[in-house]
Amino acid sequence: MTIGTRTAPAIAPGEQSTRRRDIQGLRAIAVGLVVAFHAGLPVPGGFVGVDVFFVISGFVITAMLMREQSANHRIRLTRFYGRRFLRLLPALALLVTVVAAASFVLQNPFGAQQTTASTGVGAVLLSANLVISHASGDYFADSAITNPLVNTWSLSVEEQFYLVFPALLVVGWMLARRTRIRPLHLVATLAVVSFVLAVVTTFLSSAESLSWFGGPQSFAYYSPATRAWEFAVGALLALMLSRIPRIPSGAMTVIGLLGVLLIFAAAVLLNDETPFPGLAALLPVGGTLLLLLAGSQRVSLINRTLASRPLVLVGDVSYSWYLWHWPVIVFVALLWPDQPLALVAAAAGSMLPAALSYRLVEQPLRHLKPTHVWQRTAVPIGTLTPPLVACLVLLIGANTGWGLKEAAAEPAPVSSGAARPTSPSESTSLNPDVMTESAGDDVSVSGGLRSQHAVVKAGCVNAPLTTTTCTFGPSGAPSVLLAGDSQAYAVADGLIAAAASLGFSTQVTSHTGCPFLGLPSSGSHDIPCASWQEDVLSYALRTRPLAVVIANRSTGYVHPELRWRTVARSDGSRADSVAEATDLYARALRSVVTKLSTAGIPVVVVHAVPEMTGYVDRTSIAAQAFGAGDYRKGRSALDRQRAPALTTEQSIAAQVPRLTLVDPFPALCDDRSCWARIDGEPWFQDATHLSVTGSLRLEEPMVEALTTVREVQPRTQKVTSG
């Protein structure tokens, strides 16, 4: 289930002296497309509502500033920003505060709450686009699509544009008095430069300088520099409107109809695999421009339709509906996963809080006119303080886990029959002394915060390989090296426990989205993998560990339709088919394991864990209070899904000496089903990563693998840390 998609920006209704009702109707169409897209309805390109709103905003704001310049021969920027603040921030502040409270009750404190809290702070400080692009990069990453405040990125883009654009017009008007340069020239230059930058970065495969943003595609999507041309197109129309000759009514109707066709063509023909914004954004931007033009001189059939009362009413509340619909959808999807109709109901039901926000917050405050200095100070402080405090409290509480703990449990073998797997609460507890000592000096594998793996707490993820803090187990003991993408940290606790029981220590290095293979990966989020892969391989060949354990999300790399990543082609792009992706994966895996095996270093490859699509770890206050039901998926479908990667790994193991395979399925599945949660105990922390409990279920197969590659017998005595 995909509940997260590209979202539309929060644009305020026009502040015109003569209100154009057709623009409100156009807003209704734009927000309707986005809401329908998020609700899972068949509008694959509904995210183009973002572009419609940006063009409208550029047109409306420029027209407003032109009227002020014409009437007063100047623009009072403080007044402009004050109006923008009162128009947008109070409703946003209310939303962020409510979402923070809902996150405390409904979201997992070990990841999801931190994401919500940091995004909330970014939203209030008008930098949500930067927070999200840096944290998630790819808009369809799990951390993005389950973030109830991810839609605030576009509001931040809008406000960042407003910080610069009025000043650009002021400079243009000043230059017009002394030179032949006009505001039109400056805005046109901005549009061209921004559009070229958007196209280049949309289609650029990689750029080290843009890695902070998650790569060039994320920069193209989130940056105000690559979105400014969409605002500028609307602004250019406002600046040129008086120079456009009178157009006959029939021609205006044709222009308006063409505009509608362009917008709806984008909504139907584009999808979340389309490189965007790039050239594809010309469809909705051009359509919006034509509709704004069609209603600027005389009323046409299309504009009369847009100005109808139902569409105007929705357009009036479009800002609030945009704000509220996405958090409601995310929380409903959390409570009722894999229920498509629930998302539709959530999208429709979100109109209620939107209407209340419009009536009780937007309308009263947009007309507020603080006159005294203390009022001008009290309003922003009173507006910004509640959401900032709520998000900071949420962040601090989530980082401490709110006191929620997880008891470690000894993994019990799963019967070969169809019986339900044994839950941790039904099995025998591990000796806490042994587990604490096997975890090393500073980090305990047992207990701890749910989903807070030992290596995560030690800072061994998305960081250079270091033996200082990322070595676990008996001090001075021979080491096993674990390397891979995020699967490596997710299985690490089980391997650490297994290695310690044999008297070994474990070194861990994990990079999200970077498989430990002979080739880097490719996706919409540009992740520099090659240097890390080379460093880990060089380290292994130099230090010669007892074994190198490789854990990657192999299922994801061989299935491009999962819209995640594949092993990169020679040009750095992503594979298009399962056959091509599997071939690339085979070449990349064979390359690295052959080098290790030739050097006499045993290799253990951990097959991918089941892909529990739709599963969400409900380790939340609500789940603790009311319980969380079991979650499972049919095994036959999961076996078919992993078959390409599994067959590839088995084939390579038959050809490369000293290569052993570990299969997580027997520890997590019976003959019929694989389980993500049993009796309220989560074995997964999300759809593709094991929790601490799930990781510890792999201890036994890890012991068997390490025993095989090193030809040693399991140690039964207590291990003492150095």
Structure description:
This protein is mainly α and 722 residues long. The chain has two domains: 21-399, no CATH class; 417-710, Rossmann fold. It has 29 helices and eleven strands. The chain has helices at 21-38, 49-72, 77-106, 112-124, 128-135, 142-145, 153-178, 183-203, 216-222, 224-240, 249-269, 282-297, 301-306, 309-316, 318-335, 340-349, 351-366, 373-400, 432-438, 454-457, 486-501, 530-543, 554-557, 578-598, 621-626, 635-655, 665-668, 692-696, 699-710, and strands at residues 471-472, 479-484, 505-510, 521-522, 547-551, 566-567, 603-606, 631-634, 659-662, 673-678, 681-682. The strands form three sheets. A six-stranded mixed sheet has the order 1-3-2-5-7-9, with helices on both faces. Strand 2 (479-484), helix 21 and strand 3 form a beta-alpha-beta unit. The chain is elongated, with a radius of gyration of 28 Å. The two termini are 48 Å apart. The model is unreliable at 1-17, 405-420, 422-451 and 712-722 (pLDDT under 50).
Tally the helices: 29
Distance between the termini: 48 Å
Radius of gyration: 28 Å
> What fraction, in percent, of the residue positions are helical?
55-70%
Q: Strand portion, in percent?
A: 5-15%
Going by helix content, strand content and strand pairing, the class is: mainly alpha
